[in-house]
Amino acid sequence: MVLSFRLFCLKTGVQILLREYSFDSKNRLTFFEEDVINIFPVVKHINPRVCMNYSFVTTTLLLI
Known about the structure:
This protein is an alpha+beta fold.
């Protein structure tokens, strides 16, 4: 359960307070608003290929 919670935080960009969380109790909340420290954007990128760069350059030169 802790591993899946960690993966969720990594994929969504949520940073939470470092403390011992109890996932066993169903009657009590696991974490609160105060536990969320920061929310940062998760950016995924693709490394451009040489053929893409060539087409960008040729298109730009034609526009000039």
